[in-house]
Every structure is written in structure tokens, then in C-alpha cells.
Amino acid sequence: MTHEPNASAALLTLSGIGKTYVEPVLRNVSLAVRGGEVLALTGENGAGKSTLSKIICGLEPATDGAMLLDGQPYRPASRTEAETLGIRMVMQELNLIPTLSVAENLYLNQLPHRFGWIDRGRLERDARAQMARVGLTDIDPWKPVGELGIGHQQMIEIARNLIGECRLLILDEPTAMLTHREVELLFEQVARLKANGVAIVYISHRLEELKRVADRIAVLRDGDLVCDDAIDGYSSTDLVRLMVGRAADAEIDLSGRTLGAPLLRVRGLGRTGAVQPTSFDLRAGEILGIAGLIGSGRTELLRLIFGADRADAGHVFIGEGRDAAAIDSPKAAVKAGIAMVTEDRKGQGLLLRQSIAVNTSLARLGAVSTAGWIDHGAEHALAGDYIRKLGVRSRDGQQPVGELSGGNQQKVVIARWLHRDCPVMLFDEPTRGIDIGAKFDIYTVLADLARQGKGLIIVSSDLRELMLICDRIAVMSAGRIANTFERGAWSQDALLEAAFSGYLTQDIASSDHSTAAA
């Protein structure tokens, strides 16, 4: 159901907004956003959500239509102009400078001065106060942002956008990399902003989350607005049908697998300050999930296995007996048959200016080469094959990856390693920022890989995702595996309890130490 926007009651009104690149990506979108209201904006990857948000925030001009802010014509020429008028956006791809400190990133355009010098004392006080608003009380404000995990970086970006006057805040997949505790802190901020009359556009694929936080729901499908209504009248199943034109499967077929001998053996693997000595096996055909809070060591463990970070204890072996290969570098890992899909697709996973075809073939160039020369026909055919298999929304295999939506970029990263055909595959947040329909497509791919006898390790912040697709879930807490659960023996509460267990132990030990010292 759609309705015409009530301009008189709206903070921001969109009328007939359209955007065309090579082809139309938005068509005749009309919406009203009111102060003190949370508007959920959802749809599949490539449906036009991010493009619409960028138009509102001055990052892209609309091809058609008009906008009104407080009843006056609104057409920002830049993000800075929009922010001056109180329109802010926390993008899925973060806008932070990794070499600068947390404090400097927060106040980059308004650093406090005294006698011509930066007032570091005031900057630190202001930064700590702003960080406390989003629950980041345990982070040094002088720590370089690049040394933080993606989840903490996301919270820093949210904190930055809450500085000064904020009349309309757009949150693009804000919880994709947050833990349960951080999500609750974010929801507290949303409630506070809403009570203060701030309008919020909340973009997410997590439908239960939208039903909890939003008043209204707007659904885009293939650039068209197919729903603008109160969210209470819609179930998650209704919203999925609106988004994808069909119901998403509730179950994943994990049948047809035989768990074989160990493919990967991790023995006492650790790195001081990140991962305590850890041992486990990964069997052929098995899907092993790794859960835990941000900062628990999940990503760090995967990087140690892949050889991207140097371990100071333990070993990683692939294979058995005399044929087992020890892994001590990414080159050795890939050569031995280990693939890693990183959580940072833009920074570490893709050549954004290169085509889908180039990015897909990169991990195994020999398959598309003849006498040392790239066979572009073979490369293009390969890309087309994976575009069809994974449902990548694109013009063709020659489209630059940087022009794709975040979810489709993630599919290209996965396609590269599928092409490499490694027996062991490490996935760090493989469905972050991907819509529900595409998630189930990727779950099906993961199940097929397991049926082929590959061993998969999947790090995810989404416990329901791990519970849906995994045979075992290892829960990390404070740098160690606190517990490992077999399918059928876990619950969400048990997984969360294990995730917090290491930090509770630390708190008790710290308290005992303080008491003894006193």
C-alpha cells in the first residue's frame, strides 16, 4: 500500500524522485519523513535504498522530482551543505580516516583550539563524552581508528554524526557489525533522538529489528516504491514478499553430506593480546561457526589460520600425515587450499575500479590464460557464470565492482574464491549488508560447498544465521574459545552466555585483585 506524502506535517518531502545512470535505478519515489518518527527503508540489494539516501544527503543529484525541507525547496549540492541543514547519514561503508585517532575523527572539522594550538585536553574530554553516548567507554580516544575492529569503527561513525544539530539521521545497515549489547545501545540512541523530535530513516534487512524500532515501513523493489505504510500491519513474511516478490525459504537443505576426515587442524594457535592458544579440527563437509562479541578474537583467529597475522604460538596444518602442510603466510595458505573471504570487502577484498570479470578470475588466473596472456573471452564467460549462480545484480561482467551495491560486491568476493576451488574456506561475516533473498542464495551456496566435501568456517555476528547453517558453533570470549556447541545442543541464550563468560571472569578477577590490594 502506498499513499501520497502529507507535506504539511513533514520535515522532508520527496515527490517523484527518479535517478538514472545507464538505466533507471529509482522511479517516481514519493515519501514524507516526519520529525520524531522512525521510517524503516528496506528492499533487496540494488533496489535503490542507498541511491535514495545519497540523494537526500547531497551525495548524488536526482534526475527527476523535487524535495522540500520544512516546506522550502531542498536540493543540497554536497554532503556538507546537507549536514549544515541538520541532515546526517551513517553510511554502510564508513567515512573514517584510519591513521587518525578516534578523537580526531570525531571532531575533524571542529578541532578545539587554544592560542593557535589544538587543545588536546578539551578534545579528549569532548571525545570521551561523545563516545560514552554510544557505550564506548573502554576505548582510548587517542587510539588510531584503523586499529579498531569494524564494529567499533561503526559506533565511532554513529557517534560522529550525533555531534551538533541533527534533524534527520539516516542509518544505513547500522547493526550489521554490532554485537547484541551494541545494538541495544544503538536502539537507546534511536529512542532518545526520536523523543527529541529527530526524524530517522533506518535502512536494514533485519525485519525483526525493523518491527521493533520503526513506526513506518517503506519498501523499494527494482527502483519502485511498493509499500509506504504503518509497519504494525505487516509480518516478516509479508515484507519479504514485498521485497523479493516471493517468500524466502525458512529452512536450508543441509542433507546429502558425509562428514569426513579432518581437513584443517589447529593446534595451540595464539597471538599475545588477541587470541589465546586454541586447538580444533575442521572436518570435510563440515560447517563450523564462530560466534562472539566484537573484540572477542573471532576475526583475529581467522587471520591467524590464514597466515595474515603471525602467530607467536601453535601451528596450522591442512591435510593429514606426511602430506600435511604447515601454514605460516597467506601465500602458503592459498597454495595449500585455504580461501578467506574477508569482512572488509572494500579495503581488503576487491579491486573497486576493475570489472567483475577481473575480480572473479584474480585468484586463479591460469584458468583464463593462454601462454601467459589473459583470454578475455574466457574471463568474461567465467564472470557471467558466477553472476548467474550468485544472482549478482549488474549490467554484465565488464561493470566496475565499485559501481555495485554492497551486497553484490560481497557476492563477487565469494565468486573469486569459489573459482579458486579451495577445500577449506574461511568466511568472515559473509552476509553483512546483504538482503534476505540474497542471504538465502548464499546459504544455499555454502550448503552446496559442504556437500562437495569442503570444510567451512564462518564468523558471524548473527546468531540465528549460525544456528541455521552450522553443524557446530564455537563461541569466543576474551580471546579464547569458551565453549563449543553441537547442532541441537545450542540455544541463543546459551550462546550469549558463553560469549560474555570470559569478560565476566575478567571482571571478577579484577575485582578480587582490587580487594586484595586494598
UniProtKB/TrEMBL annotation:
Does the keyword Transport feature in the UniProt annotation?
yes
Q: What's its membrane topology? A: Peripheral membrane protein
The ABC transporter domain sits at 9-247, 259-503
What's an example GO cellular component term for this entry?
plasma membrane
From which organism does this entry originate?
Pseudoduganella plicata
Q: Which Pfam families match?
A: ABC_tran (PF00005)
Record bears the keyword Protease: no
Where does the UniProt annotation locate this protein?
Cell membrane
What UniProt keywords are attached to this protein's entry? ATP-binding, Cell inner membrane, Cell membrane, Membrane, Nucleotide-binding, Repeat, Sugar transport, Translocase, Transport
Q: Which named protein is this? A: Sugar ABC transporter ATP-binding protein
List the Gene Ontology MF annotations in alphabetical order.
Answer: ATP binding; ATP hydrolysis activity
